[in-house]
C-alpha cells in the first residue's frame, strides 16, 4: 500500500515539474527575447536603402526593442508569479474506493 502511495507521489512531483517547465510564459518570453536580440542587432546599423524603404524610421531597431521588452516582461512575470503545483486530489474513501 505504501509503495503505491510513494509511486503516486513521485508521479505528482514529475507532473508539477513538467507543468512548470512547459509554462507558456517561459516559451513566449524566451522566443520573444531571443528574436528581439537578433532583430535589435540587425537594426543597429541600418543601410540607407532600409531607411529609405521605411521612410527614415529604423524599423528593425524599434521592433527588436519592442520584442525584447515583451519577452523580458513575460520572463519577469514568470519569475514573480511562478506556476503553483496542482493540489493532489484524494478521495475521502481512500485509494481503493472502499
Please explain how this structure is put together.
With 98 residues, the chain is mostly helical. The chain is 70% helix and 0% strand. The protein has four helices and no strands. The radius of gyration is 23 Å and the shape is rod-shaped. 7% of the residues are buried. The model has no long low-confidence stretch (mean pLDDT 82).
How many individual β-strands? Answer: 0
Write down the secondary-structure element order: HHHH
Q: What would you call the structural class?
A: mainly alpha
What proportion of the residues form beta strands (DSSP E)? under 5%
The number of distinct helices, counting runs of at least 4 residues, comes to 4
Fraction of helical residues? over 70%
- What is the general shape? rod-shaped
> What would the average pLDDT be, to the nearest integer?
82
Cα-based radius of gyration, to the nearest Å: 23 Å
> Termini distance?
14 Å
Q: Sheet with the most strands?
A: none
Given as residue ranges, the uncertain stretches (5+ residues, pLDDT < 50) are: none
Amino acid at each position: 500500500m505504501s509503495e503505491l502511495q510513494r509511486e503516486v507521489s513521485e508521479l505528482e512531483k514529475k507532473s508539477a515539474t513538467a507543468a512548470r517547465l512547459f509554462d507558456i510564459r517561459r516559451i513566449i518570453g524566451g522566443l520573444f527575447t531571443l528574436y528581439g536580440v537578433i532583430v535589435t542587432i540587425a537594426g543597429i546599423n541600418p543601410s540607407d536603402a532600409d531607411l529609405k524603404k521605411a521612410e527614415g524610421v529604423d524599423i528593425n531597431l524599434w521592433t527588436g526593442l519592442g520584442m525584447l521588452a515583451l519577452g523580458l516582461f513575460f520572463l519577469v512575470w514568470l519569475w514573480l508569479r511562478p506556476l503553483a503545483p496542482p493540489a493532489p486530489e484524494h478521495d475521502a474513501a481512500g485509494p481503493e474506493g472502499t
